[in-house]
Each structure stands twice: as C-alpha cells, then as structure tokens.
Design brief:
- The complex is a heterodimer of chains A (113) and B (114).
- By secondary structure, chain A is an all-beta fold.
- In chain A, 0% of the residues lie in helices and 54% in strands.
- Chain A contains no helices and 11 strands.
- In chain A, strands 2, 4, 5, 9, 10 and 11 form a 6-stranded mixed sheet that branches.
- By secondary structure, chain B is an all-beta fold.
- Chain B contains no helices and 11 strands.
- Chain B is globular.
- Classes of the chains: A mainly beta (113), B mainly beta (114).
- The interface between A and B is medium-sized, with 23 and 28 residues.
C-alpha cells in the first residue's frame, strides 16, 4: 500500500517568512495529493490539492509543487501570518481507491509574531 | 451551512461500555469515511462507504461496526470499549470514490475511555 513520509515534524518561522513542508510517497500510481490544515480542536480542512497531470498550483499565499519522477510534493506558504499556525498534513491517493487517503505524519507550524 | 457534522463532540465513558458516534453530511457526496486520529496526530482510515455500501474496511477490531442508513449518514458503533480506543474520530465525505472530489472532514469526536 501507499506510504507517505512528511518532514519536518515541527517548523517555526518568523511572521512574514516562508514555510516549506515536504512529503514523499511510495505508490507511483497515486495521482491526487491534497494538503490539509488542522487547527486545534477542529477537523482537517482542505487548503489546496494537486493532481498528477500538474506540476504546480498556486492559491494566493499557498502553493504546491509535485515531482512525479522523484515522487515528492511540497507545500509552500509565503508571507506567513500567526493564523497560519496549525498542523499541516499531506496526503496521497489514487483513482479507484475510493479516495482512501494515506496521510503524512503532520507538521506543526508555528508562526512567531 | 453545508458541512459534515458529528455528534457528540466529546464522549467520556468507562471500559466495557458500548457507544455510538453519529455523522451526517449535507454536501450530496456519495462516499463517507471514518478516520481515527491517535495521540500523536496520526490520521488513519478505518472505513469507507459508497452509497451505503461498505467498500473499505481496514484492519479494525470487530468491536467497531459502521452503519449507513442512507448515503448522507454514517454512524460508528463501538462495543466493549477499551483504553486503546481513546482517540479523536473524524467522519469525512467525498464526491466520488474514483475520481475528483476532495474529502471534507467533520469536527471530530474526542473519545476518552477510562
């Protein structure tokens, strides 16, 4: 089955700096890669996703890149703000898997004011 | 509001008891899931239902039994609760099982077994 590794487990940045979280996956058949943000006491919330036919996707301060050959994808947050502080999860799945998401282990991002 | 909702939000109970968690989604999605998040925040799928039919059943003890009365509801019943069942349980839904559609998560149910 799929295995997703996520690094780093914790990340502290100064407000206004950029943050990068990296994930690798093992199943070359995986073709959908969402990122979730989980705030304290809440459920994971989808913030951006990318499909395998695309190399990069941006949404305001958030971007995701995908390297299918190397089987890794990354989340980039620019101009970080205190409200970006949360746990971020990457995930991977493939068509026909009933969207059975395999999650990374999470990154606790802390944005210091 | 369109969303995935779960009840209760908190559940504290004694070992050996039986409890249920309810989930409802009004997003019109075909597929619903139960995930377990342990104390280290690791998220792992437990079950997946598509149009009321079980399609994924990960290695979960038989004490856990999901039930889907209709495609908008997926409940989780747990028999003979054990200390190790303490976790946060998330219900989620997605549009299609095979293509498109992200998973949307409910707010979670924190289960504490004493």
């Amino acid at each position: 089955g799929e295995n997703v590794e996520q690094h780093p487990s914790t990340l502290s940045v100064q407000e206004g700096d950029s943050a990068v979280i990296k994930c690798t996956y093992s199943d070359s058949a995986s073709n959908y890669f969402p990122w979730y943000k989980q705030e304290l006491g809440k459920g994971p919330q989808l913030i951006i996703d990318i499909r395998s036919n695309v190399g990069e996707k941006k949404d305001q301060r958030i971007a995701v890149t995908l390297n299918k050959t190397a089987k890794h994808f990354s989340l980039h947050i620019t101009e970080t703000q205190p409200e970006d502080s949360a746990v971020y999860f990457c995930a991977a799945t493939r068509s026909g898997s009933a969207r059975q998401l395999t999650f990374g282990s999470g990154t606790q991002l802390t944005v210091l004011p | 509001d369109t969303a995935v909702s779960q009840t209760p939000k908190y559940l504290v109970t004694q070992m050996g008891n039986d409890k249920s968690i309810k989930c409802e989604q009004n997003l019109g999605h075909d597929t619903m899931y139960w995930y377990k998040q342990d104390s280290k925040k690791f998220l792992k799928i437990m079950f997946s239902y598509n149009n009321k039919e079980l399609i994924i059943n990960e290695t979960v003890p038989n004490r856990f039994s999901p039930k889907s009365p209709d495609k908008a509801h997926l409940n989780l019943h747990i028999n003979s609760l054990e200390l190790g069942d303490s976790a946060v349980y998330f219900c989620a839904s997605s549009q299609e099982p095979t293509s498109g559609g992200a998973s949307f998560f409910g707010p979670g149910t924190r289960l504490t077994v004493l």
